[in-house]
Amino acid sequence: MxxxxxxxxxxTPVGRRRGALASMHSAxxxxxxxxxxxxxxxxxxxxxxxxxxxxCDTIGSQAGDVARTAWLVAGLPDHVPGVTIDRQCGSxxxxxxxxxxxVMSGTQDLVVAGGLQNxxxxxxxxxxxxxxxxxxxxxxxxxxxxxxRYGDQEVSQFRSAEMIAEKWEISRExxxxxxxxxHQRAIRAIDEGRxxxxxxxxxxxxxxxxxxxxxxxxxxxGLNPLLPDGRVHAGVxxxxxDAASAMLLxxxxxxxxxxxxxxxxxxxxxxxxxxxxxxxxxxxxxxxHALARTGMSIDDIDLFECNEAFAxxxxxxxxxxxxxxxxxxxxxxxxxxGHPIGATGTRLMTTMLHELERTGGRFGLxxxxxxxxxxxxxxxxxxx
Length: 384
Hints:
Thiolase; Acetyl-CoA C-acetyltransferase; single chain; acyltransferase; alpha/beta; Thiolase_C
């Protein structure tokens, strides 16, 4: 089977809610990452076969196939198509999978995969709330088929995070220590300049806004839980954020014709589902599946990115898979850096690729929980 190579990866800095990117139109946000990707790779943009970008809540500035709009806003050739996909938090990781599959099938040679999200302008679940205001049904409780299968119970990421903490015996203090370490790792990465190669500054904005230098275990201990009598609170949850990210995948033919240098290859890609009410446990089953399919073990992986939707998600995943936390989210995760939903998948992979290059590691595994109880897994192999 033909290989799919990563030849470029870039991201904007991540802006916090109502921060530096809050007023930027979503299409312009995506266009910035796309322009930077084309400039850094030096590829003729007219040779790109497709642009696949993840985005959730595609209303307002994110409506109307924003992947296509972002490409055009960037001033790039209008004969290149674009498509916007939604696999919830894993949308842009799925974009990488679709792009790689296009290359590996032999039907495409150069495909852009990325994602964008302005959560300041369009809050999470805006599309559903607007639909409700217009009198449309909700996705779950008002579906007779859903209620017949899963009962009339609450489907909520907050409830799921609490259920996971309880089942895997993860205390509030465990989660707070993990969250504090996420901030410390992100701050260290910023101070050491680890993100500089992967970030395309937006004007003078060049440093992720999320990491909190003033956070402490004592401050976290004073935060109120998100649910009554719960353990999970805002300090151990991902931050609402704004960002865009993009990668360029290429076939061997494109590498030869355009004089490109493959930085990594897609070693494995898969996606699995789990109980949608538990919702956030998908990475456990998906990681086990990926390792079984590849014949690899946890010990074969040099770096892991497991999205920090909530601290309990990563801690339960690590307990079940045996992934050593010292190799997980080594430059901080979404608790510190933020979770701009549609952009997070390729943001994580961009960071993972650059960290493999910095440290000389070979294999990196990325996974993330997604709405509906799903999870993608991508294993990349560094080549440079």
